[in-house]
Amino acid sequence: MKKLLLLLLPFFSFSQGYTSYFTGNTTNITTAAEFGVCLMGGATENDNAMRWLLQKANGGDVVVLRSTGSNGYNTYFYSDLGVTVNSVETLVITSVAGATNPYVLDKVANAEMIWFAGGDQWNYVSYFKDNALEDVLNNHINVKNAPIGGTSAGMAILGGYYFSAQNGSVTSAQALNNPYNAAMTIGGFTGTAQSDFLNVPFLRDVITDTHYDSPDRKGRHVAFMARIIKDYSPTAYGIASNEYVAICYGADGRAYVYGDYPNYDEYAYFIQPNCQWMNVIENCQPGQPLTWNYSGSAVMTYKVPGTMNGTNYFDLGHWGDWNATHFGGSWENWSVNNGAFLAASGSGPNISCALSVGENEWNKTTIYPNPFSNYIYMNNSQYATVEIFDSLGKRVFVDKNFTSNKIDTSQFSSGLYFVKIQKEGKIITNKILKN
To answer: Domains along the chain?
Structure first.
């Protein structure tokens, strides 16, 4: 006979940096979990979205990770939603020692589902990153292909890039007036193929944001993306949700949006640079207001109403593809001019900015050397349109029928440049640096 305990008294281990709250069957079981990700906006959880995620655990064990609070999720996950799971254990972790405690690592390693509660994401980054718990979490996501999700701070840490809140929060006004504000602390890729923290499928180049409508965080989110493009990557995407909205996707990358629209204005936002402007930002400098404008169309956003059954969606596998089959939302153009954010109705991508899977030869296009001096070379770019822009967005080279593999750059000043190669409606962008 199985030993079933609906509620156990919490196990305190202050000296070891964690507290455990356990509900359910104390005998661990192993089930065939199914991949799934749920991103919640930070207020009350959407029950249907949580049922969707719990079902991915296939009756297994659920672990909730948090750095403050107690057992608020235990009964909710275990019995309130009507989805059978073997157990729910909340681990309140308050230090690196707690995160790397053998008991904690074992429980997380054996979980069929992991949920990050809200709180302070800097605690999660400080306690979970660059240690054994980070490894166990990435194994859960990418080896076990098991479900994971989070709300508020828990959603914030799931992107390949993330706002770490190391120096506290930041408002849209602060971020737009100075995108290098001391509170604009962004983690993520640092020149390697993997994020420096969590590696979640479909979120590689994404930075998330939550509580989007309270207060309005659209401006700071665009500032996050501008910083990423300027400092780290040729491109960046954003995913955001209003407080009561959930975004859930499985292995196909189709992100369904849950909420209570039309009773309430509950939306998710899928944000991408307008690739016609090569992801070049007019002004993103320390101590200066951000300008990322391009006639009001610098950023394209697909705004999706969240419904109770999650009928509307965005296809995360087709960012920037005008042929993508997104459903139920509407496009907006976002821009920033001298620190002022503006949103207006838009029409979405009018050319394909994304490469389709399987275009192997096109994917092999390379630009070298990088850094460069007097020449750059490109393979597999014949008969393409090639443009080079400086860091201020000024075009310094164009050839609409490129037949060589070599460009004379001896007249270029030292600094950062962006190469845009367009061929048959497809675009590749690269950052290059002149010594």
So the answer is: 13-345 (3.40.50.880), 360-434 (2.60.40.3080)
